[in-house]
Amino acid sequence: MTTFCLEDLAAIIAARSKADAAASYTKSLLEGGPSRAAKKLGEEAVELVIAALEKDHKAVVSESADLLYHLLVVLHQSGASLGEVLEELEKRTAKSGHEEKASRRNISP
User: Fold this and answer.
1) Which of 21, 67, 71, 87 could make an SS bond with 44 (beta carbons 3.0 to 4.6 A apart)?
2) What is the DSSP string of the chain?
């Protein structure tokens, strides 16, 4: 079992956001703007769906790692923290999924 966690990955992304784009994929992704990072996130999500439908365990693991990485890049770029996402998940898990989903429909943007 690994001790590596999403907070570790978020810290690595934050550090690499200050690197030179020629030396850091993370920095080059961030410099591409929100659309580039979001597009990569979407691509990884689709690749994970395909791997899941094909029941390819190894690919599911690999694509999940890609998806989590790109999600954290998008969060970083958006100024949102992993902590904020986890707080939101904690609130949502305080009730059943059906109740929580119904309550979101009643919230005006």
Assistant:
1) 67
2) -----HHHHHHHHHHHTTS-TTT-HHHHHHHTHHHHHHHHHHHHHHHHHHHHHTT-HHHHHHHHHHHHHHHHHHHHHHT--HHHHHHHHHHHTTS-HHHHHHHHHT---
Q: How many domains is the chain built from?
A: 1
Distinct helix (H) and strand (E) counts, the chain:
6, 0
Name the residue range of residue 70's domain. Answer: 6-88
* Confidence at residue 96, expressed as pLDDT on a 0 to 100 scale: 83
Please state the pTM of the whole predicted model.
0.86
**Residue 76 lies inside a defined structural domain of this protein:** yes
